[in-house]
Amino acid sequence: MSEFWNERYTLKEYVYGTKPNVFFKTQIANLSPGKILFPAEGEGRNAVYAARLGWDVYAFDSSIEARKKAYLLAKDHAVGIKYELNDIETAEYPSDFFDCIVLIFAHFHPFERNYFHNRLLSFLKPGGTIILEGFSKKQLQFSSGGPRTVEMLFSEEEIQNDFKLLSKLELEEAEIILDEGKFHQGSASVIRMVGEK
Predict the structure, then answer these.
(1) What is the mean predicted confidence (pLDDT) over 94-120?
(2) Mean pLDDT, residues 146-172 taken together
(3) DSSP per-residue string spanning the chain
(4) Which domains are seen in the chain, by residue range?
């Protein structure tokens, strides 16, 4: 899978843009800066934005090309980020370490999704926040991006079940207009979640 992403990210342009995801930008404004983790961060648009706000930023992705572009974007904005070449199976952080974890269009194999989501939660401090936006199963009706198999897409029930141990959970399915670079354009159906551990 990293071959697919490396090929996509070798394009000179930032294929999902350089501006932060709108939902993430809205939610992060409600939080005080601390340690934050961006799994499957891609080209760094959200990580760099958080660093600009004063967060201590950690990120990882399996694509070396994505990491290169993330570091270039961080340099352009004169901020520092810690970006590892890793995937969710092998990424290691201390328990109860992060104040916030952000999952933006991070879709995992359906047999592993629940395990991966709970593994990430183990890295989150009690009282910490998790922010998620991903494509819903209705996204197959649209051509604005995302996996093209229904099993890789989210339902509210699946996300609620994955994060049932959170003490607070806000969850919604919404139809939005995406404007995030070349590969996220147009009407889309998404699941949005904010939770507190």
Answers:
(1) 95
(2) 95
(3) -HHHHHHHHTSSS-TT-SSPPHHHHHHHTTS---EEEETT-TTSHHHHHHHHTT-EEEEEES-HHHHHHHHHHHHHTT---EEEE--TTT----TT-EEEEEEES----TTTHHHHHHHHHHTEEEEEEEEEEEEBGGGGG--SSS-SSGGGSB-HHHHHHHTTT-SEEEEEEEEEEEEETTTEEEEEEEEEEEEE-
(4) 2-196 (3.40.50.150)
